[in-house]
Amino acid sequence: DQFKQSLDEGITYQSVVGARGAFFKVTLLAYGYTFVSKGTVAGHIKHLEHETRVYERLKPIQGRYVPVFLGTIDLRTVDKDYWIYFETYVVHMMFMSWGGLLLDDDKMDQLGVLDEIAWVDEGIEALDAVHGKGVLHCDVRWANILYNPDTNGIMLIDFERAELFDEAEPSDEESDKEESMPMSTEQSQIWKKIWDRARKENYDVVFIIEDALEIKN
């Protein structure tokens, strides 16, 4: 109902734009709840729809290693759009809980957590959790690795480039089937490529965290 009435109150463009989305702060005026939104133009809606599917896959780890996904809206259904700059109108928005703060050694020191957290272990744990749900992030970089004060750990964001594969942790029934039905050579090669890429993402997150927080080996 709030969006039907107006987009002038409760939505604040944060002047942060990525390759396919713009960042907003959103407040539900009737309740005072505040969260974040990623909005995009008509030509990039498919990428946010893909990201929605990724968040659905990651539902079991939302709120710990990734933000909580809250839903989407096509503003055109309420006859609205949101102008952000010259001839650029956001028409599709997805909503999530706040992910956290960008990693910065001075900021983390001010918060008193720089030397209190095993940062590299936290980063690997977050990525392992994502990989364990059948998702390759495919865009592991500084801007997508956050410190969340509520969990006191690392939270990963921005899954529009992520790739989905069969979940890495089969059920007991599936495990029994796998024991009696060995993978073909082609299947083995596919899984090897997936896990090689997953390991590469782990190496990337280690380097990024060590560089951002000036962690000495």
From TrEMBL:
InterPro entries from the UniProt entry: Kinase-like_dom_sf, Meiotic_Drive_Suppr_Kinase, Prot_kinase_dom
GO molecular function: ATP binding; protein kinase activity
Protein kinase domain residues: 12-217
Full protein name: Protein kinase domain-containing protein
